[in-house]
Amino acid sequence: MEVLSRQPAAEEDEECEDLRPLFEERLGDPSAPCVTFDFGGGMAPLSLLQRPEAFRRSAAVGAEGVTQQQDCPTERTRRTGCVVWDASVVLAALVVSLASDGRLGLEGGAAVELGSGETGLVGLALARALGPSQTKGCVLTDVPELLPALQRNLERNAMAPNGAAVIARPFVWGDAQSGLATSQWPEALRPPFALLLAADCIYDTENVPPFMAALRELSGLESQVFVAFDRALGRSGAYASFDRMAREEWLVELVPLEAQHPQFRKPDVAVYRL
């Protein structure tokens, strides 16, 4: 199994991130064209298409078409959203468990996932775990270039007739036009959202401020936010920046390991509840 890592170098300056063996076992397989997750609770398994061959961004593409959200060292040379990462698996299993036990506290509100990637694992898992009586629905978001593949996975995992509504929409962190974009979403699925989800979104210090701006834009005073990342990837500068900025604006709770799903847990994955 393989995972995003880097050769020894200064964390924010090195652009040689690559897939290389780090663990004997991972929660997901980023080298497989298709991965399946069964989180239990009577839910049908989720089957997600991946594009491991597209992980390395072609140098021939250059910076053309790269959004501000992608304009950080990792995303200039990599498409991290093409595959599933471990923090997404942990967070997806956690929200399914909380939803099954009635501990998610959505109370009929809508949810949004930031940085859904091409797989949309966390948002799809939530939508499958909830019915329309529990939520107005879930919006899966990412940069425009990832939306076609995300839409394919959404259609591949079509919700049951009694499942929650789920849609995919482009949303770029820190974009001055993002407010206009959200105003065109279905009325029931516009900010402020009751629940915000984000996993494996924090790789570089440069993308933390726009990420935090996106959280502010999409949340309200009563919103609940879950942010998860895998500390095994070694992006300590970005993680510290997020931790500092989060504590300046929110009450922060770190979800303990024992509260994670017993089958889908990982000590290195930090789950923040804001």
TrEMBL record:
Origin: domain of life: Eukaryota
Protein name, entry field: Calmodulin-lysine N-methyltransferase
